[in-house]
From TrEMBL:
Name of this protein: Uncharacterized protein
Organism: Eubacterium plexicaudatum ASF492
A Pfam family that the UniProt record links to this protein: LRR_5
InterPro entries in the record: LRR_5, LRR_dom_sf
Length: 394
């Protein structure tokens, strides 16, 4: 590419430089007879020769100015091309965190491999690799995996070099994320599992957990199988370096925290949002009817897929009256969840396994709607057979 640019630059300026050399020759031919030949020249002739010299020098200066202008234009064109090339490869925050980018592990005990594959896919996207979708757990495995021992400390796959190091604190993790928008894989040796930590935004760590018991996509680390505090090792990308992601205003507003819960805007005109998860592991949670984000009041109409899945400490939850949909696995495997109060005036849908594996003796109390009507919505949600469903108090 550089050679082509230089050849083009030479072609653009070659004719100008040739004219400049000719002018220099003419100037020399004039100067020689005047200054080196000691002959008598009439005054008018000397004046004419001097005038020609002055005119030639002026033309020479113009040619030099033209050369400088031409060089500047070529440099500007090259810079413009570089910017256009970078723009073509620019990846937005939303694209980097699209659900399509993330993966689920194909089998047990390969969480480190799957998490690393997601990280490599993101690094490939940021470096302009249009074939990042071809990077799969299987394609990375032959370079990164050692049978019987697991993920290698250091390896290169799909042109991305990955290295390993011990991890001493959350601050160290945040420091790595600041330099690595593709994310960092963390591993808990005591509870053997790995996740990809994707970013640290507005004081919250986000991740994607390769476990099939967890939702797909990006969400707060509070919803993952392990915590950042429990991680003792990590893998990160050594090269390519200086990768960057483009954050737009829409990206920054895509998910926001309020009162310990996360929300995503569904419809700006209708002013509706989905509750997508939690920021911390609280024992009691209330999903409100409305929430104020950036000074605007929204109705909370949905609980997103896997929003509270595997919330280890959650014991009681109250669901506001504007909720129309509870998505699949919303409360999956909340083993201590004993009391669910639903203000069900607008509830129309409960997704598969929304209440699967909650406490065996859980109480689900319905407020504002007939229990029989609500019970029909619970079909296929895997509510424990020992749980009770009844009417709650207004």
């Amino acid at each position: 590419m550089a050679d082509k640019r230089m050849r083009r630059k030479a072609a653009n300026t070659g004719s100008v430089r040739s004219n400049y050399r000719k002018r220099k020759t003419v100037t020399a031919s004039i100067l020689i007879p005047v200054f080196f030949l000691n002959v008598s020249v009439p005054g008018a002739s000397i004046w004419a020769q001097t005038n020609r010299i002055s005119q030639t020098q002026s033309e020479d200066k113009q040619i030099q100015d033209d050369l400088i202008s031409e060089d500047k234009q070529v440099q500007d064109d090259l810079i413009s091309e570089d910017i256009q090339t970078k723009d073509q490869h620019a990846v937005t925050f939303a694209q980097l965190n699209d659900n399509e980018v993330f993966l689920k592990q194909s089998q047990a005990r390969v969480c480190t491999l799957t998490a690393s594959t997601m990280m490599i896919r993101r690094a490939a996207m940021l470096s302009g690799n249009q074939d990042w979708r071809q990077i799969t757990e299987k394609s990375v495995r032959k370079y990164a995996w050692a049978e019987k021992t697991g993920l290698k400390w250091n390896f290169t796959a799909a042109g991305v070099s990955v290295v390993h190091k011990s991890l001493s604190s959350i601050n160290e993790l945040i420091g790595l994320l600041d330099k690595h928008p593709e994310g960092v894989v963390i591993y808990n040796a005591r509870k053997p599992h790995a996740i990809l930590v994707t970013d640290y935004t507005d004081g919250i760590l986000y991740c994607s957990d390769p476990s099939n018991d967890k939702p797909s996509g990006r969400y707060p680390i509070a919803q993952a199988s392990i915590t950042a505090e429990s991680a003792s090792r990590c893998w990160y990308v050594k090269s390519p370096v200086n990768l960057t992601v483009v954050k737009t205003d829409a990206d920054r507003q895509s998910e926001q925290a309020a009162n310990g819960l996360m929300y995503r805007v569904l419809d700006q005109e209708k002013k509706t949002v989905s509750c997508t998860g939690r920021v911390s592991d609280d024992t009691t949670v209330t999903i409100p009817e409305t929430v104020i984000l950036d000074g605007v009041e929204y109705q909370v109409v949905q609980i997103a897929e896997g929003a509270f899945a595997d919330a280890a400490k959650l014991k009681e939850i109250t669901i506001g009256a504007n909720i129309a949909e509870i998505e699949p696995k919303a409360f999956y495997q909340c083993k201590k969840l004993r009391k669910v109060t639903i203000h069900a005036q607008n509830l129309k849908k409960i997704g598969t396994d929304a209440f699967a594996k909650i406490h065996k003796k859980a109480q689900i109390l319905i407020v504002g709607k007939q229990v029989e009507t609500f019970a029909s919505l619970l079909t296929g949600t895997s509510v424990p057979v020992t749980a009770t469903v009844g009417a709650g108090k207004q």
